[in-house]
Amino acid sequence: MTTITHDIARDVPRSARLDWSPYLVGAGIGILSWIAFGLFGDPLGVTTAYSRIASLFATPLIGVDAVAQNDYWKSMPLKWDYGVWFLVGIPFGAFVSAVLSGTWRLELVPEVWKDRFGPSVTKRFIAAFFGGAVIMYGARLAGGCTSGHGISGGLQLALSSWLFLGVMFTTGLVVSAIMFRKF
Amino acid sequence: MTMLAIFGALAMGAVFGFLLQRGNVTSCNVIENQFRLRDFTVLKVMGTAIVVGGIGVLLLVDTGNSKYYVKDANMLAVALGAALFGVGMVVYGYCPGTALGAIATGSVHALVGALGMVAGAILYALSFDWLKGHVLNVWALGKVRLPDLTGVPDAAWFIVLAIGAGLFFRWVETSQPKRA
Description:
The structure holds two protein chains of two kinds. Chain A contains eleven helices and no strands. Chain A has helices spanning 2-10, 14-17, 22-40, 47-62, 64-69, 71-75, 82-100, 111-117, 121-142, 146-155, 159-179. In chain A, helix 10 packs across helix 11. Chain A has one domain (5-179). Chain B has helices at 3-22, 28-35, 41-62, 75-92, 96-104, 108-134, 146-150, 154-175. Chain B is globular, with a radius of gyration of 19 Å. The mean pLDDT of chain B is 95. At the A-B interface, helix 1, helix 3, helix 4, helix 6 and helix 7 of A face helix 1, helix 2, helix 3, helix 4 and helix 5 of B.
């Protein structure tokens, strides 16, 4: 395992292939939070803007009127605000980083999944779709995600956010133990 | 929004996405292995972000340069939502932010899951009226912060958080076997 990773890394320019320390990355996100609070007056978050954009996808499925009359989207209409542009920026920055570090590659089934559930692309896609649906429903019910609750809410010492962090990690540990148990 | 504000928001998102990718948390394997307690990258990133971010934001608020944006403590809804989130995060292998980063690094299954997230958001909007009547208002405590609830001042919380995180990270670094 070590040698394989090492061989791949050797093909990439030395300056670019360095993984940043998770502490450095965490501190960077912390400093980004200062700017988000102090300059933009809008803490880092992802799922609120995601819900706004989801109304676009809902229109062909349930009709223009149903979207317009929905109480949730009335409180959260599609508008091109700070949060939506922030959302658009995320894949852009990740793409640049992946290309610069030489780690961009197509991935249909991740290693951890393959080791446990086999190489079936269909199986992985179905699980990803189902998992995605559950995670977003949960995020909207809780009022935020790992960014909005976990980081932005956690650093404000919000009761709601620390409840979110505790329940989310505990559930994740239990589900993971069941999913990856040895037979 | 002005062009400058749009560019600013885009730049903030791009730096966030860049950091997520550099920190390896756009990798499904890294996130899955956090919940299997084999890789502590996710906790290291989040813990450091909370301590560093929180101390700065506390100073900004104390000096009148920002305010708090605390989410409602609808205790039942947050607990149920967080539990679903935990299930989804392990099955999907991403959280909503890291998923968007992962799509841009070539993870096709992350894109499929993002369509699932759209489905989840639509289902939530459709069930919103019922939730509002039956779930969202249960144990709704409002925008409560831990210092208000306990009487322990902010600074004390951050001293404890910083020391706790430091000890935990030191333990992780010395006890976890090095993995490739």
